[in-house]
Write a structure and sequence with these properties.
The complex is a heterotrimer of chains A (about 450), B (about 270) and C (about 350).
Chain A (H helix, E strand, L loop, with lengths): L14 H7 L1 H5 L3 H20 L7 H26 L7 H23 L9 H27 L3 H20 L9 H4 L10 H29 L7 H24 L4 H10 L17 H19 L1 H11 L1 H6 L4 H27 L10 H11 L11 H20 L4 H26 L1
Chain B lengths: L1 H10 L7 E10 L2 E11 L4 E5 L6 H9 L6 E6 L2 E3 L4 H6 L2 E4 L11 H5 L14 H15 L15 H14 L4 E5 L7 H16 L3 E5 L3 H7 L2 E6 L2 E7 L5 H10 L8 H8 L1
Parallel strand pairs in B: 3-8, 3-9, 6-7, 7-8
Antiparallel strand pairs in B: 1-2, 1-4, 4-5, 9-10
Helix pairs in contact in B: 5-6, 9-10
Chain C lengths: L2 H19 L14 E6 L5 H17 L3 E6 L4 H13 L4 E4 L8 H9 L3 E5 L8 E6 L1 H15 L3 E7 L6 H18 L3 E8 L5 H14 L6 E4 L2 H13 L7 E5 L3 H9 L4 E4 L2 H17 L10 E4 L5 E7 L2 E3 L5 H5 L5 H4 L13
Parallel strand pairs in C: 1-2, 1-3, 3-4, 4-5, 5-12, 6-7, 6-8, 8-9, 9-10
Antiparallel strand pairs in C: 10-13, 11-12
Helix pairs in contact in C: 1-3, 2-10, 3-4, 5-6, 7-8
The chains are: A mainly alpha (about 450), B alpha/beta (about 270), C alpha/beta (about 350).
Amino acid sequence: MTEAKPLQANVTGGPTKRSARSVFAGLEIDGRLFGMIAALAILWVAFNFLSDGLFLSPRNLWNLSVQSAAVAIMTCGMVLIIVSRNIDLSIGSILVFVALIMGLMQTEWIPNTLGLGLNQPYTWIVVVVVGIAVGALIGALHGFLIAYIGIPSFIVTLGGLLIWRGAAFLLARGRTIAPLDTTFQLLGGGPSGSLGETLSWLIAGLAIVGLIYSLLASRRRRRRYGFPLRAVWADVALGTIGSVAVAGAVWVANSYPWPPALAAAYALEHNIPVPPGGLQIPTGIAIPVLIAIGIALGMTFLANRRRFGRYVYSIGGNPDAAELAGINTRWTIMKTFIAMGVLAAVAAAVTAARLNAATNGLGSGVELQVIAAAVIGGTSFSGGIGTIAGGVLGAVVMQSLSSGMVLIGVDTALQDIVLGLVLVAAVGLDTVLRRRRA
Amino acid sequence: MSASESSNAMTASPRTPLVEMRNIRVSFGGVHAVDGVSVDLYPGEVVGLVGGNGAGKSTLIRALSGAHQANEGEIYINGQKATITNPRDAKTYGIETIYQTLALADNVDAAANMFLGREITTRLGSLNDAAMESAAREVMRRLNPNFKNFKVPVKSLSGGQRQSVAIARAVHFNARIIIMDEPTAALGPAETAQVRDLVMQLKSEGIGIFLISHDIHDVFDLADRISVMLQGKLVGTVEKTKVTKDEVLAMSIIGKLPQEVSETEMASLVN
Amino acid sequence: MSIRKVAAILTIAALTFGACSSSATSAPGGASGGCKVGVAWATFQEERYGLRDEPAIRAALAAGGATYIGNSALNKADIQTANVESLIAAGIKVLVLNSTDPKAMLPSVKKAVDAGIAVIAYDRELESAKALFMTHDNVEVGRMIAEAVTKAQPTGNYAIILGDKTQTNPVFLRTGMAKVLDPLIASGAIKIVGEQNTPNWAADAAQTEMEQMLTAANNDIQAVLSENDNMATGAVAALKAQGLELKVKIGAQDGDKAALNRVALGTQVVSVWKNSADLGTAAGKAALELCKNPDISKVTGAKAVKTSGGLDGYGVNLNPVPITQDNLQVVLDAKWITVAELCKDVKPASVKGCP
């Protein structure tokens, strides 16, 4: 505060005055996001009660994290698409098309056509790079037709929905491509596709250091420009809550031991003496979950801290204003679809690797799950509003509901009804609250 | 055409005009919204553009701001021929526009709107929101000291505050030419007075201003010269000190210069 | 945009697809005097339809001098309704309907019959006495899955992964399974600990279901009955993540190449094989007979059958074959799968049929 410029005098309120108003204002937390976390907590506790403690077991939470990964990855892109007043119905079809290309590449094209053999160490990386490139190209094509030719995104991606699934069929004539490359399979998680105890704690440590650094950096920045600082207690509280959350998540992931059968096989293979009660190998964070978290952070950075994100939100808020402000709106829209294509390809890698197969039916209906996740997470179809974090939470809410209901044995038809009701209720509640706030 | 030439003669200034638009024509599907109009603007001068609805004044000015492209005609900035095909081009020539609709992205805050398309970034290319907010606060201190809501989406601001944001965006980037399209339409009396003060201040800094308004009183208060349009054509450009409000009104309705209007026409208008 | 418009767009696109995969459409009325046979496919999602059934029907029709026209409906009844209309408009004499829905397609059947077109219900039932139901006996398929799995695992906890709840095949299959399972449940030998329908018969959805059922039962599951091989792919992936793929006995049906490979590897007990190519050939031949005489009761092999709803109709049933490690040679002899595909990653000389 000592180096504050004279401007400080004009700034309203001091830090103490502001924080006194309420805890929330002091923490500067998005009330909506907090509401979602609270709703998710209630949901989890309810499922835990109904499943006699199974839902909140490390095993189920670990499963839930892996099951949510693919939808969460794609939701990160879908939020930006919907924020800019567009829609992408084609992601499930891009997913299956890319999955089949990746499957065929690693099981047939590289080993047979090129004669290089199965399970080469470099196979997975070549396959992923090509898959992402294909996803980006498809996204670019959709984006070009939408932004430069002016065909509505609903139509272009509805066409894409049909075209890429059809193309996927022609690629493999409906065959199931399996099994896949052993290294590639790690992208899908499973005990061997997880980080293990030490690496998971290392990641947790890095995340906590990053969190504290960003809080300090934000304080420093505010001070440099003489803005009111967040109260020290608020920063300490945020840092503590964040750190505990990260450490807790990793603790849960590490509390899930390898399944006994796999642990026994591992012990046999590595000549490890098995203690009474079986070998306990902590599983740790699954690789697809790490990918999803990395993508969510990266996309949040793009959305909040880069021009691209600022332009996407401005276009969603007022397309004419964005154009008149000199923004290249077309290129910006095209970029959102390229990002969506890339994320669909990443999700394809995760889904196929997890299934250890590329099949014709992959990703059918996933576009609706992803759109629902984005919308439950607070993304508005009227444009300009929505956050990546909200979308990812929405994906977790959706997956918690569907896998929780399987866990407690709810009838399939009833599951659909519940999911539908939650979707409409969540958006309805949001609409009412938003109107009241306005 | 003869009208604009005569106006040049009247100004009799040896300086190069800041803006010179020559024979501008803008058509929409065969209809000439602007038909061969020529206007000019000198440093430190306010030129009022008046005319009824559909006279073509907004369309003319949108050809200068890059929102529409002219089908025919030439634009000279500081005597140099300029090509303006989009809003970005206009901004590189130092032309800033305050649109009647304000053209704000409602869902982002004041600083984000002010710097939209011209964000301040860090060395690594990330947005420097703190620097932008700081600059926004500084500009606002000059324009509207009562403005305090820097952290909220502009949707939740009052009409006057939104106007301040739109004006702040125009003045912050060292504009040489500012276009104001109905700048006081949404404002109360106090805020309107503020805009007048601002126009006078900008004028004193050597900035040229095109002021579009259907309110002749406004224009008479602020403008040095007045260009009148009717049905896409320029009726003429006159110096404010040499005409009366009624004469300008007559130009915008009858489409004739004051010296061409007959007494009976004038009388019927006044009644 | 209204649902109707969306459906129309989907229809147009689906028709375009049909055209892509069936070049015959490009030359309407080409085969002079030849009979025109229209095939309305429900979907090409599963491996078999595009790879086996369609080529077999085409070949049988071509051999008899008839013309093939086809389209696909993305598993949607409204699209298929429009697809059938366009086939009728194209002047077909026989409609082979691979139905999306046993009841929703009845107006289309009536429209065809009214136009003097003979109708074959292909592989999926229609709740109509007017259509000749040609299928592998799906109740029998379900029974065979359960029989092979209970033979390998006569006691313990069972999980069942059912197909899409909007179709009748899952019910037939489940009925067949019950014939074997019910006495064992009654005697207390086995217990069903989980049973889930799977939207779109999707493998990734089946994987999640299997994971949750394993979690709920704390891995205390000894056998899984899956209603098709595609979903078994997902279930086996979930078992593999728990290291259980060789311990838990799983059975399914379709004869998918990946599933037959699993049978050879020992990670799947049985894949009940319905030679879809045989069904396609039989349907093609039946269509040729119907071109000459549209009376479905006169088709070779037609027997009186009852529909699920109790109507008296006619059907042709082909018998399925359960493929286990004991009879892999059958699929090799039928050239259904190559040795390399069947025996990928199989330990040499460990299984009959693999070198």
